Amino acid sequence: MKTLLLARHAKSDWGDPSVRDHDRPLNARGLRDAPAMASRLRDEGVRLRHIVSSTALRARTTADEYAAVFHLEVADEPALYAASPRTILAVAAELPDEAEVAMLVGHNPGMTDAVAELTGDHVELPTCAVAECAIDIDAWAELIEGSGRLIALRTPRM
């Protein structure tokens, strides 16, 4: 059994129109929500073992907050920036098998659509939301569309 956490980055700052989309930082709310969500996962007993993030600044900053709480390193994955659900699930299928619980940090609409493709559940992931999906597999390479079950959807407001 594997657990995949599909996380949308925290709220980003749109204040400077000259900043490239890839380089947008988190805003004050995002800087508050990301560490709070990371602590919440830890406090609820989630045993996160591996984190892979989009290279976009807002996603990487969000991932760094999870990494700090769980004492992990973050693996950068450029393919997660503006990724399709198929790409997101392909990245998940390449996770190291020793990581029973792994997180991908990325963007919408890809993350929301990946939850639907993996579990069949159509949920909306607001910023800083985390969808926890159980997958009855022994190796990440066995992950296919429809093989997961949505266990929990956590949002900063719940």
What does this structure look like?
- The protein has 158 residues and is of the alpha/beta class.
- It contains 4 helices and 6 strands.
- It has helices at 28-43, 57-70, 85-93, 110-119, and strands at residues 2-8, 50-53, 74-76, 101-106, 130-135, 148-154.
- A 6-stranded mixed sheet has the order 3-2-4-1-5-6, with helices on both faces.
- β2, α2 and β3 form a beta-alpha-beta unit.
- α1 runs parallel beside α2 (57-70) and α3 packs across α4.
- The longest helix has 16 residues, at 28-43.
- The model has no long low-confidence stretch (mean pLDDT 97).
Straight-line N-to-C gap:
27 Å
Largest sheet: 6 strands, mixed
- Overall helicity: 25-40%
Low-pLDDT parts are none
How are the elements arranged and paired?
Blueprint: E1 2-8, H1 28-43, E2 50-53, H2 57-70, E3 74-76, H3 85-93, E4 101-106, H4 110-119, E5 130-135, E6 148-154
Parallel strand pairs: 1-4, 2-3, 2-4
Antiparallel strand pairs: 1-5, 5-6
Helix pairs in contact: 1-2, 3-4
